[in-house]
Amino acid sequence: MERYVSRNEVSLSSPETDNGRKKGRLLLRDSIILDSEDGQGDVGRMGIRDHMDGLGVFGTLILRGTLFDALGQYFIDEFRLLPRIGGAKWDASIEGPKVDDVEKKRRRRQKQEAEDGLVWTAAAVRGCVVVKFGAGEVEGARRWIGGMLRSEESVERLFGERALLCLR
Fold first, then answer.
1. Confidence (pTM)
2. How far is it, in rounded angstroms, from Cα 140 to Cα 87?
């Protein structure tokens, strides 16, 4: 494969119509363009895989709406708590047994992320939360997204335990 292009858009529709079509206000456009071009204008010498830094799978999760507010905030909060370059721990004042259990679980997850070669980011954009992730293998990505959704618990609470069967 020499090129892969993906585009996701989230629009807020309005009751107004223009020639029978609903008008919508674009809230978010997420594009991914993977190209085998090597930066020198030469196509085909290297495949897309050679440009992916070991990532065999990538994905985008876009969350919007009141049903997903807590889940979106969970991703934002967990991303903020990831270790940063420099390693200073500024939140060392947090104490308590419940926090300790949560922190142990978080560290186990982060260790698994490192083993799976998983990288991710989360950002709030115009009322949406966009989570982008990549991993060396599909299994690592499946394990991570399933673990995050189970840990936060709202998907299972709202849609039932069967909603997460595909992530086991």
1. 0.78
2. 25
Q: Is 86 in the same domain as 33?
A: no
For 1, the domain range is: 1-51
Distance CA 71, CA 154 (A): 7
Domain co-membership, 125 together with 147: yes
Give every strand in the sheet of 119-125, ordered side by side: 57-64, 128-135, 119-125
**End position of a domain, from candidates 33, 51, 69:** 51
User: Structure tokens of 17?
Assistant: 């119509």
Residues 127 and 147 occupy one common structural domain: yes
Distance between CA 59 and CA 6 in Å, rounded? Answer: 11
146 and 74 in a single domain? The answer is yes
Number of domains in the chain: 2
Distance CA 89, CA 107 (A): 14
Q: Residues 6 or more apart from 7 whose CB is under 8 A from it?
A: 29, 30, 31, 32
Convert the pLDDT of each residue in 128-148 to its tens digit.
Answer: 999 999 999 999 999 999 999
Output the CA torsion 103→109→114→116 (10° steps): 180
